[in-house]
Design brief:
It is a single chain. Helix 4 packs across helix 5, helix 5 runs antiparallel to helix 10 and helix 6 crosses helix 8. The protein has two domains: 128 residues, Jelly Rolls; 72 residues, Orthogonal Bundle (Arc Repressor Mutant, subunit A), CATH 1.10.10. Strands 1, 2, 3, 4 and 5 form a five-stranded antiparallel β-sheet that branches. The protein has 231 residues and is an alpha+beta fold. The chain is globular, with a radius of gyration of 18 Å.
Length: 231
Amino acid sequence: MIQGGAKIGNRLLDAMRPASIGRLQPHLEPVALLLAEPLDPAGYTYFPVAGLISVVATMEDGASVEIGLTSREGMYSVSAILSDHTPSESAVVQLPGDALRVKPRLLREAMDADAALRKLLLRYTQAAMSAVAQSAACNRLHLLEQRCARWLLACHDRAVTDRLPLTHEFLATMLGVSRPGVTLALGALQQDGLITYNHGTMTIIDRQGLEAISCECYRVIEDEFDRLWSP
């Protein structure tokens, strides 16, 4: 039971008016987000409280690239807001945690009955789509070392620790590049004293240094979501 005025831990849910969250509350189910678990957006919409979900686009030949991240700042997937169609992308739990989930049909019914809720969720959709567009431009235009720094910063923002359980293979998949390329980029970051890597765990040592190396896309995406919560 969500008490009146109590913070849930998901920024999007916490931004809802009391009447809106009260409308959704009977339909919200707690669920554990298990590492590497694929999520089914057709069955549920997820509001993470802790952990991290990667949204991935996969090509016919099996090649894939991450197109978005979702954690306690938002939800997966925005398709539940826009239509009843199953999205073409897939999602996998990147960092374990917890979430509240709701059936997409019930979320859309709540939006239809609540103009304030509908406005908030549409603003979130705009921010999420802007982040995807910025990521696409970043993947095309910026150096791999910059992209690695941006990605590590985004993960660090959503984690509760400086230690991230990430392998070179996984990071290569997320960035849509070869493993040797990622190894070289991470080696440069480690040589500069920004991170360390050992047995599938990356540790952030110098966050300010990562911010200095990262391209502008990190701040552009974060600012877009910050605008969502401004009055």
